Amino acid sequence: MTAIYIDGDACPVREEVYRVANRLRLHVFVVANGSRPILAPRQDNIQMVIVDAGADKADDWIEEHISQSDVCVTADIPLAARVLAKDARALAPNGRAWTRDNIGSALAGREVSRHLRELGLDHKGPAPFTKSDRSRFLSALDTIVQAALRGR
Description:
Rossmann fold; alpha/beta; 43% helix
């Protein structure tokens, strides 16, 4: 059975995931480290998972529990790589599907950005989240979940 895992600490599309999961009768795991309270609907198919504080604790939990038929919603590129290594699917909140074809360049770009920040050369943060990002995410989530349900 397909489930959706949300890297919950900074996910702007949780409500959209809940709607899709309810429509398709899927289970959702919202995984967070508890540093910021996250409210999840009290529904049988939505489970809040609070892990210990610490770097990558939520990522570790997701990697340990996710399976090939599941989908992970995350903006965290290293987590997306870990999910893909388990043959599961990963989707960013802006609707970008992480794949084996694009994750390597995303990891490399992340490393270059980190290096530029350390040198004091890169001060840009992520672009603001827009309505078109939300719309693109909903469409991509439906596509990726349908593929997971079909086992492709």
